[in-house]
Amino acid sequence: MATKKKTSVPPDKLELHERLVVAAGMNSKSNFGSAYTARNGNMCSMISKYGVVGIRRPEAERDAFLDEHDAEVFRADPSWPPSKEYVAVPDASLEDTEILRPYLERSCAYVKALKPKPKRKR
């Protein structure tokens, strides 16, 4: 049985993020004490150590999500600048996996179309 990595993400938010990731047929990865999803080295979603979930959206679809969900642009840390390609999922919306699943699936389709990140030599 694999041991879970230590995380600084609030457990309830991490559970909701994981539920969304599984519903979208994906696996999450962890780095720097939080979790994210990625395709070809490009991130689709992430959760900050504060429990804020960000989903990457194509530019043409970003404003619609912000308006529909009364959301804001994602910031991994309140003191950092906004991540312009990501939207922050409001807590109320995060609890509704079925509404968010298509957004995460579309995010992954979007990043699959991006140029893959080069793999690092070890």
| Proper CATH architecture | 2-Layer Sandwich
Helical stretch tally = 4
- Name the average pLDDT: 89
How is the biggest beta sheet arranged? 6 strands, antiparallel
CATH superfamily: YgaC/TfoX-N like chaperone
Poorly predicted regions are: none
> Beta fraction of the residues?
15-25%
Class inferred from helices and paired strands:
alpha+beta
> How many distinct folded domains?
1
Shape: globular
Relative helix content: 25-40%
Count the E strands.
6
CATH class: Alpha Beta
What's the CATH topology name? Answer: Yope Regulator, Chain: A
Describe what you observe in this structure.
The structure is a single chain. The protein is of the alpha+beta class and 122 residues long. The protein has one domain (11-112): Yope Regulator, Chain: A, CATH 3.30.1460.30. The protein is built from 4 helices and 6 strands. Helix 1 (11-23) packs across helix 4.
